[in-house]
Design a protein that fits this description.
GO terms for molecular function: glutamate synthase activity. The chain contains 18 helices and 13 strands. By secondary structure, it is of the alpha/beta class. Helix 10 (about 310-320) links the parallel strand 8 (about 300-305) and strand 9. The protein is globular.
């Protein structure tokens, strides 16, 4: 009997063992580390996927919630690969609805991206400096008012929903990029302490700042904020993924670490109520806002999806005398998706971002408060076109969540609610989470944020302004079937000047951007590459 088949079989097993060893020891790809050998099939299919889908399945622009083109742009940006496209747009311009068109200007002496997006060496990966146009908390005289160094920051995603390595990657990444991370409502963990600035979120269950009975405890909040680089406090009223709905953390998912961070007992289901107990109306909410601001010195704001407008009208009315008020408002679109929820809430509760934000902004603008409040947008705004629309409508800062997840390895498996995320991002499984290397993924998040800022600067230059916050509702049109185009101002009923900064703020941000391109100031640090 020939020994050739035996040696061939042994050789094959040896090759498989070598591939398995390589996959288990490498740290770049969580899929391969968690699923050695077979995980390579994913990348093989990905390489031939476009050809297969072109004839058999879907186009590059059909998948949801993020299309293949959108995911590919985030992946390429996070890896500092070529994120350009060739042979024209995949978008169905001829028959599509609400197609975004940004109107460039032929002549302009504004050229911010050449100085700010390339730095002294003119390299692709230099740190892009794009601060927010407004100083959060300054209009109300908060002791620790601050101007965010980045207009794009990481939105609220809790430890518990995301794994410890994922939270570490996000926090270290924002430190590299000069941005900040919102903690989400799950409390402030050691994973959040990797050098990045924080916005601490206070949810309805008051995780991290609750007493033994689950009630809000201002003393614990003050102590917590003093123990970490917390720059602002955000009171979450609701979120786009599950507006008006509480949450349930089953006992099986409550580890000793989560128990300690959230201040909840082991072995018991933990329910988050749908509404706050520390206040019951706008008046009592503003009392809590001012109490937190006074005790911590930090700017304090609210986050909410948009439904009934009565709350917003009452809030603006209460703030007109400027005696009490929120420093910022985070508007989350109903298309937000980082929280697991019943399908009816995911699909049909709360307005989409553009509709909801337009109505909230208009409420404050009519009250003369638009320049006194920093407007933060959330809900699929981590893509350049959506980001520019949001800023043209009046957003000053953008919070990105799912796009940040994609940048650190998420593949849109849509298993966030099962605890079986294959890339280790949205899971508490030690086995799955170990595949995510926080150091490498932090660099990818930083590269993604940097690339998005660079693109926003480039588009601002095309429009002829110094900063994306100076793009207004007349600079963008939504085109329908390549026949008609309607400016955002007309679509959303904006009056003249809405969506724009006031004259004083405009002069301030232009001076700020001009100052950043002076030779002595143009010394950005390189964002490390993997």
């Amino acid at each position: 009997m020939s020994r050739t088949p035996l040696w061939a079989g042994l050789g094959g097993l040896g090759a498989v063992a070598a591939v398995a060893a390589r996959d288990l020891t490498q740290r770049t790809h969580a899929i391969r580390r968690n699923y050695p050998v077979v995980g390579n099939l994913r990348y093989a299919l990905e390489r031939v996927g476009p050809e297969l889908r072109q004839y058999i399945v879907t186009s590059n622009d059909e998948e949801r919630p993020f299309s293949r083109d959108q995911r590919s742009w985030v992946y390429a940006s996070s890896k500092l690969e070529n994120n350009y496209t060739g042979f024209g747009t995949d978008n169905d311009v001829e028959r599509g609805e609400s197609y975004v068109i940004i109107k460039h200007r032929t002549f302009s002496d504004v050229a911010p991206s050449s100085a700010l997006a390339h730095g002294a060496k003119g390299e692709h990966d230099d740190l892009v400096r794009l601060p927010a146009a407004k100083v959060i908390g300054r209009p109300r005289g908060r002791r620790h008012a601050f101007r965010p160094e980045s207009v794009v920051n990481v939105s609220g995603m809790s430890f518990g929903s995301l794994s410890g390595p994922a939270i570490q990657a996000l926090n270290h990444g924002v430190a590299l990029a000069g941005a900040y991370q919102n903690t989400g409502e799950g409390g402030l963990s050691d994973h959040h302490r990797q050098g990045g600035d924080l916005m601490f979120q206070v949810g309805t269950a008051y995780f991290g700042c609750r007493d033994e009975h689950g009630r809000f405890d201002i003393e614990r909040l003050v102590e917590l904020c003093a123990s970490a680089p917390v720059r602002a406090v955000e009171i979450k009223l609701s979120q786009g993924a599950k507006p008006g709905l509480g949450g349930m953390l089953p006992a099986a998912k409550i580890t000793p670490e989560i128990s300690q961070i959230r201040g909840i007992p082991l072995g018991q289901d933990c329910a988050s109520p749908s509404r706050h107990t520390a206040f019951t109306d706008v008046d009592s909410m503003l009392d809590v806002v001012e109490q937190i601001a006074e005790r911590t010195g930090l700017p304090v704001g609210i986050k909410s999806a948009v439904g009934d407008l009565v709350f917003w009208e009452q809030l603006a009315e209460a703030m007109v005398d400027r005696q009490r008020g929120v420093d910022f408002v985070t508007v989350d679109g109903g298309e937000g998706g980082t929280g697991a929820a019943p399908l009816i809430f995911t699909d049909s509760v709360a307005l989409p971002f553009r509709l909801g934000f337009a109505r909230v902004y208009a409420t404050f603008a009519r009250a003369g408060l638009a320049d006194d409040v920093t407007f933060i947008g959330a809900g699929k705004l981590g893509l350049p076109d959506n980001a520019m629309v949001a800023m043209a409508m009046g957003c000053d800062v953008l919070h990105v969540a799912r796009e940040a997840m994609l940048s650190i390895g998420c593949i849109q498996a849509q298993k966030c609610h099962t605890d079986h995320c294959p890339t280790g991002v949205a899971t508490q499984s030690p086995w799955l989470a170990h595949g995510l290397d926080p150091q490498l993924k932090a660099v990818r998040l930083a590269s993604y944020l940097n690339t998005l800022r660079r693109d926003l600067l480039k588009v601002s230059e095309a429009v002829g302004v110094w900063h994306p916050g100076l793009v207004d509702a007349d600079d963008i049109e939504l085109v329908s079937e390549a026949r008609t185009g309607v400016p955002l101002r007309e679509i959303y009923g904006y009056e003249h000047g809405w969506g724009s900064l006031g004259p004083d703020l405009t002069d301030e941000v232009v001076d700020l951007m001009r100052g950043l391109v002076e030779p002595e100031e143009r010394r950005p640090q390189d964002v490390p590459t993997s």
